[in-house]
Specification:
The complex is a heterodimer. Chain A is α+β, with helices and mostly antiparallel strands. Chain A is built from four helices and eight strands; from the N terminus they run βαββαβββαββα. Chain A has one domain: Alpha-Beta Complex (Aldehyde Oxidoreductase, domain 3). Chain B contains three helices and seven strands; from the N terminus they run E-H-E-E-H-H-E-E-E-E. The chains are: A alpha+beta, B alpha+beta.
Chain lengths: ~150, ~80
Amino acid sequence: MFEDIRLLDGPFDPQEIIQATADSTMSKGGVANFTGYVSSSGDVEALELSHYEPLTLPGMEDLARAARDRFDITAITIVHRLGRMVPGDPIVCVAAASRHRRDAINAVDFAMDHLKSAAWFWKRELRGGTWHWIEPRGADHSDLARWKSE
Amino acid sequence: MTVTILFLGPLRDAAGEESRAVPAPLDWTGLIGAVGTDIAQQLADDRVNIACGGRVLADKTSLQAKDGDEVALLPPVSGG
């Protein structure tokens, strides 16, 4: 079982991370991945992400474990940025390898929904020279509820 | 003999500082008294969590922080 769970203070290359996940297992059938980038919509000039260290990484490791228990995967990668970013910068990359397409895709979907609603991150955006905190989205919670009834 | 209160995310702006040292031990009533009216009101919100010694409390009013503990005030997360 390959696992790559990291918080990064600086820029990263999602393609390298996805490739490393794919290369980690000879028995792979497929690799699914999702990369989130900082969006410039709403005239966002910069995004800053803070966290609470004693909870964040253990939370991401628990999430990887939950994905492993739930899906038939051979590798899982969750890499998340911290600090200040500008539009176009990768902010999160999740990848999963499996012999079965559905498990790889679902593991990525599951990890993203849980990261978005349950991870200990706080974001603020720089717009028109002023920082604004981002409120939680209701949709993040309904996304999470998808996995509870199954 | 102190407990460190840590303000996370938007609560940091409200507090005007990253952290505050208060005398140990510290319970829920003591915390409410130590953070000022504005933050005390926000702590009443169910969506605001408290971690003590690196663990999120299931019931934040059960807080019992002792000397050397870090009490983190965790506002609702913005999402990853």
